[in-house]
Amino acid sequence: MSINKKTTIVVSAVLVSSALLSGCGLFGGGDKKEKIDPPQTVSYEDEDVVTEESTEDADQGTEEAEASTVKTELYLIDNNGYVVSQVLDLPKTNSVAKQALEHLVEDGPVTEVLPNNFRAVLPAGTKVSVDIKKDVANVDFSKEFSEYKPEDEMRILQAVTWTLTQFDGVEKVKMTLNGNEMDEMPVNGTPIGETTSRAIGINFDHSLVTDISNTKPVTVYYLGGEEGNYYYVPVTKRVSNKNENNIEAVVAELVKGPGAGTNLSPSLAKEVELLEKPEMKDGVVTLNFNEAIYSSFEDKYVSVNLLNALVLSLTEQKGIESVAVQVDGNADIVNEDGKKLEPVTRPENVNTGSF
Question: Which residue stretches belong to region Disordered (predicted)?
Answer without folding.
Answer: 35-67
